[in-house]
Amino acid sequence: MLFIKKKARDEEMKAARLVNEDKVDKPETIKCPKCGKEVDKQRVVKAKYICYECGSYFRVKTKNRIKMVTDSKTFEPWFEDMPKSNPLGTEGYEDKVAAAQEKTGLSEAVTIGKALVNGEPCVIGVCDARFLMSSMGYVVGEKIVRAVERATKEELPVFMFCCSGGARMQEGIISLMQMAKTSAAFKKHSEAGLLYVPILTDPTTGGVTASFAMLGDIILGEPDALIGFAGPRVIKQTIGQELPEGFQRAEFLVEHGIIDGIVTRDKLKDTMYRLIVTHKKQKGYANFNTIEADKFDISEVLKERLISYEPKTPWEKLKGARQMSRPSGMDYVKYICDDFYEIHGDRTMNDDKAIVGGIGHIDGQPVTIISQVKGANSSECISRNFGMPLPDGYRKALRLMKQAEKFGRPIITFVNTPGAFCGLEAEERGMGEAIARNLYEMSALKVPVLAILIGEGGSGGALALAVGNEVWMLENATYSILSPEGYASILWKDSSRAEEAAEVMKITAQDLEKLKVIEKVIPEYGGADAASVPYIGEFLKINIKEFLKKFDNMSPDEIAEDRYSRFRKM
What we know:
Elements: H1 2-25, E1 29-31, E2 38-40, H2 41-46, H3 62-69, E3 76-77, H4 93-104, E4 110-117, E5 120-127, H5 138-154, E6 158-164, H6 172-191, E7 196-205, H7 206-209, E8 220-221, E9 227-228, H8 232-239, H9 250-255, E10 261-262, H10 268-278, H11 300-307, H12 314-321, H13 329-336, E11 339-343, E12 355-362, E13 365-372, H14 378-383, H15 391-407, E14 411-417, H16 424-428, H17 431-442, E15 449-458, H18 459-463, E16 470-474, E17 478-480, H19 484-492, H20 498-504, H21 509-514, E18 520-522, H22 533-550, H23 556-568
Parallel strand pairs: 5-6, 6-7, 7-8, 7-9, 8-10, 13-14, 14-15, 15-16, 15-17, 16-18
Antiparallel strand pairs: 1-2, 3-4, 4-5, 11-12, 12-13
Helix pairs in contact: 5-6, 13-22, 15-17, 19-20
């Protein structure tokens, strides 16, 4: 009998152990909304809420988002005691808000306040889709506006993690008014010279997209986030149109120039920190953290090359400037700047790859870099349209220049184009206006502008990036009213006389220095190529620093007047 009882007890203990082991061995799982697989929740959390099976992003709760991007226990929420709002007296609305508050533990769809990001103070707002699809009513709009007004007063940058289904229908026209109200608050924040960065998460649609989500100095998106004014369902219901695959996704918006870039969650906090530091207000334009030697020595290979180097004719220089092998502005930037972060798009319709622009640092001094790029091989030349920008490219460049002016950053442009693109698309999009607008706005920019012609400088397409306080040219670069072929064809009715025309037109750096069209000729050490790029880059860096020092104690108005006077003498 005792044996039977002991056996029964052992069986019970074994069964209990198996149950406990089963609990340990079977982790908590969640279903990925994209691939549909059951995945280990803890692994997903450690991966910053990214599915390890398909790479898709889970939507993130407010508290988790704040933990992800702020220093521990530094977030201080603002305006959490806002009164309820039901301006239209919509039946059942207050119960829905109360239910959302109970479900999420949030007071409203947006949480906003002050925090530290790697030690740097800023204001952070987080929209939460669990709260009535993060729709924007009076309380959401009011919280954002109060926070932005406070950020303006305290001179703090603002980051908004946007997510919304749009306006809150239950509040009708009052909800619509929040679009104007939030936009006006961010305008005042911008006029104070402060940074605003919206980070668009899945989904960002409707009235939020048509207001504060699209008003940043830099606009970033999470991978594959749905971003659009009218969502796919609304479009289908309204006009019966089916959207193509990938339409309205973050990547699509970068390609079409609407937002500046994609940021992955593993780089999110560091990206925010870098943006805060880069956009801090600085005094002067020569805030270098190292002292550069005023001379450097070139390699023995280049010394040997210089011994046998023979000067080229204007026509030979032009032919060399047109070669795919000639280095681009971005090749020199590697040796001029500590880093470079590209910013995309004209915010209207396109990210013209013929013009690359972004922010770099020269020994700690932030600068805006804009470069025309032709391409280093056939496929790249095609993708960059052989360095012939569309109007979209010039509008992208101007957007970056105005952004630089707002934050007091010097501007450096690298000019290398056979000319602006001529064709149906260019005329439809207003090429003449785009170039004219650049000349108009660049003339009055209140920060130093340096233009460097590094290859072929063709006509107005080149001038649209060359309205500088100074203009420099590499020794074998060219700069002309149009191509020698065009010149010979128009004046002599014979394009075969292009070589002769190149002599007559005075297109070389040496000729243009004599004509006082440019200030400086940059040595190429036997020709610009892979071997000489580091030394040309180093020479440029030293001289750019000297250039910036000249403007360090000048007022913004004096800098603009200096540029006006330069061209007034032409």
